[in-house]
Write a structure and sequence with these properties.
The chain is α+β, with helices and mostly antiparallel strands. The protein is built from 8 helices and 17 strands. It has 3 domains: about 120 residues, Beta Barrel (conserved putative lor/sdh protein from methanococcus maripaludis s2 fold), CATH 2.40.420.20; about 90 residues, Elongation Factor Tu (Ef-tu), domain 3 (Beta Barrel); about 90 residues. Helix content is about 45%, strand content about 25%. The longest helix is centred in the first third of the chain and has 39 residues. The chain is elongated and about 175 Å long. The two termini are about 65 Å apart. About 5% of the residues have low confidence. Keywords: Coiled coil, Membrane, Transmembrane, Transmembrane helix, Transport.
């Protein structure tokens, strides 16, 4: 009986050992999965740092190498903003009519001024004679006085006509073109316009263009883009083109080949950017990542620090985007391979913190 009990205990012990072994063998994958997850969580938390409320990622050179993260310096770009837009060849027939009317009224003013000066002298002479023992009758003196007052009113009315014409020209064409008519400025240019040897072009530039319009633009016919005309800046237009959003300017073309009222295509002449306009940087498309509709790049500020910075994507180039030097500077190191990995790591840490909260 005792031998049977011992045999049973031995068999029971063997079965327990077998069960423990089976449990360990088949549960090894679950055990292994728990350990790496713990390591990743710990490692992720150590990668994300914060300075002045701004998060950045820290990666050792070894991790950068193993993750395939590559950087390159930001280069400047000779790119010039493309100011392509439609322009209109303006008719100056109404302006010429206004100029002729202006000159006609100025001649009237000159005549009335001389007449007023003469009537004033006669009025003063008649008044002196009338005061001197009525050497001139009261009736004759009153007639001369009325004549003098009427001439004065005529002159004032005519001068108001001139003011009205000047206001109309100023409202339609601006001060520069008004000065051509009022003060005779740029007389040769206006003669070219009247003779049809030059044209005024009204150009609408995009709203995101620089505040200063380009000095020169190139014009091309819509039906013949190979035929180009050089246009020089004249003045800002006081009126807008309702069909196109943007700022409007007047340009001069010394050519009679452009038909009045025709539409032409305007492009900025490709001169290099001046130092006053600031630097433009080329951001390669490989460096750009998107999140919530915003474009971002990662900038390496030191051997192991990476900051995420936003960029504008208004101006696209053949290999990325052109941005004005601001948050990103020339020769900054930007990530061109592995940026998406950095973004995922950063947001994984943020999600973990939200879950912990």
């Amino acid at each position: 009986m005792k031998n049977k009990l011992n045999a049973f205990l031995v068999i029971q012990a063997i079965l327990i050992l077998i069960l423990v072994w089976l449990l360990t063998y088949f549960g090894r994958d679950e055990f292994n999965n728990i350990k790496p997850n713990s390591d990743i969580s710990k490692n992720t938390q150590s990668l994300i740092k914060s300075a002045n409320g701004v998060n950045y990622i820290t990666l050792s050179p070894e991790i950068q190498s193993n993750s395939g993260i590559k950087t390159q310096p930001v280069q400047t770009s000779d790119y010039i903003k493309n100011l392509t837009n439609y322009a209109t060849v303006l008719s100056i027939d109404l302006l010429i009519e206004q100029k002729n009317k202006f000159n006609e009224i100025k001649n009237q003013i000159s005549l009335l001024s001389n007449e007023l000066e003469r009537d004033k002298k006669n009025y003063e002479r008649f008044k002196a004679l009338n005061d001197d023992n009525k050497n001139v009758s009261d009736k004759a003196f009153q007639e001369m006085k009325v004549n003098f007052e009427n001439t004065k009113i005529k002159l004032q009315t005519t001068q108001e006509l001139i003011t009205g014409i000047k206001q109309n020209i100023r409202a339609q064409w601006g001060e520069i073109i008004l000065s051509m008519i009022d003060a005779g400025a740029r007389k040769e240019l206006f003669e070219f316009l009247v003779q049809g040897k030059a044209r005024i072009i009204k150009v609408t530039l995009p709203e995101n263009a620089d505040n200063q319009p380009p000095k020169n633009i190139s014009l091309a016919l819509i039906d013949n883009l190979n035929e180009k005309f050089l246009a020089s800046y004249l003045a800002e237009s006081p009126t807008l083109d309702k069909s196109i959003k943007g700022k409007t300017y007047f340009y001069i073309v010394y050519s009679n080949q452009l038909r009045i009222d025709s539409k032409v295509i305007a492009n900025q002449v490709q001169d290099k950017l001046s130092s006053e306009s600031g630097k433009y940087l080329a951001i390669p498309k490989e460096a750009v990542i998107w999140n919530s509709g915003q474009a971002w790049v990662y900038v390496q500020s030191s051997e192991n620090k990476f900051f995420r910075k936003s960029i504008e994507t208004i101006t696209e180039s053949s290999n990325g985007w052109i941005v004005k030097e601001n948050q990103i500077k020339e020769n900054d190191l930007i990530v061109i391979n592995g940026a998406q990995l950095l973004l995922s790591e950063e947001f994984k840490y943020q999600i973990k913190n939200e879950n912990d909260d």
